[in-house]
Write a structure and sequence with these properties.
- This protein is about 35% helix and about 20% strand.
- By secondary structure, it is of the alpha/beta class.
- Strands 1, 2, 5, 6, 8, 9, 10 and 11 form an eight-stranded mixed sheet that branches.
- α1 packs antiparallel against α3.
- The protein is globular.
């Protein structure tokens, strides 16, 4: 049986994917195909490159991710993700997506055409940067005359490319939607708007999943709360273990 897993975006919350994969592997569940949006594409790339969840956890806990943000002096964004290339090169190398050990689909939003696209070949850094380019926060990526932004804007649970490859699909969304009472500035309103957009397109796609995982305790972790990476990993791990223990999964 071929297993596919879709990993949502969610910035720091995306670290929960590491815990989810760790719990799955402890049950002998090792996905064959991976798709990811934004932070999910980064975790997905490491997993597709052959890193174990334990190795990914060690890297995540020893990396100062905020140091990879380069201030962008333009009207289009606050930061550029150019420095992300050094991070990916250090651990994965300059690779084409198709050269990874497992099949990976990187979800990006084509801003010009208004559609999601799923990249399974091409420059790994280019497409992960595009998939992670949250509007107004990070600079869009231009490629062949089109602008690309965060894949989660159009599809934050990219199950579509998994359908033809997988017998069993696992969807992981790290953005449970709680009630927000502190919408008192432009940034908090912007981030809340992103959450609502993500929630809307995830609801449409989770029905395709044979197993849907959405760790509820992640609601208290902010998108850019880098000091809570360990918490996110642990929450993903515990929640998934509980789900697996409660369900007699036939995988």
């Amino acid at each position: 049986m071929k297993i596919g897993i879709a990993l949502s975006g969610g910035a720091v919350r995306g670290a929960a994917h590491i815990g989810v994969l760790k719990a799955l592997e402890e049950r002998g569940i090792k996905p064959d195909f991976i798709s990811g949006s934004s932070a999910g594409s980064i975790v997905g790339a490491f997993y597709a490159a052959g890193y174990s969840p334990l190795e990914m956890e060690k890297i995540a806990l020893n990396t100062k991710f905020l140091s990879y943000l380069k201030p962008e002096l333009s009207f289009s964004a606050l930061f550029s993700l150019e420095k992300l290339e050094k991070f990916l090169e250090r651990y994965i190398g300059k690779k084409d997506i198709s050269e990874l050990e497992k099949k990976l689909f990187v979800c990006v939003t084509n801003l010009n055409k208004g559609i999601p696209e799923y990249k399974s070949k091409g420059d790994l850094f280019l497409w992960i940067s595009a998939s992670s380019s949250l509007p107004f926060i990070f600079k869009p990526v231009e490629y062949e005359g089109n602008l690309y932004i965060d894949g989660g804007i159009m599809d934050n649970l990219p199950v579509e490319p998994l359908k033809i490859h997988s017998d069993y699909i696992i969807g992981v969304d790290v953005n449970p939607l709680g009630t927000e009472e502190r919408l008192n500035n432009a940034f908090s309103i912007l981030i809340r708007s992103f959450y609502l957009a993500f929630r809307s397109n995830v609801e449409l796609r989770k029905r395709v999943c044979d197993l849907f995982i959405q760790p509820e305790d992640l609601v208290d972790i902010g998108l850019f709360s880098a000091w809570r990476i360990k918490d996110a990993i642990d929450i993903g791990y515990r929640y998934t273990k509980n789900i697996l223990n409660r369900n007699d999964l036939k995988i």
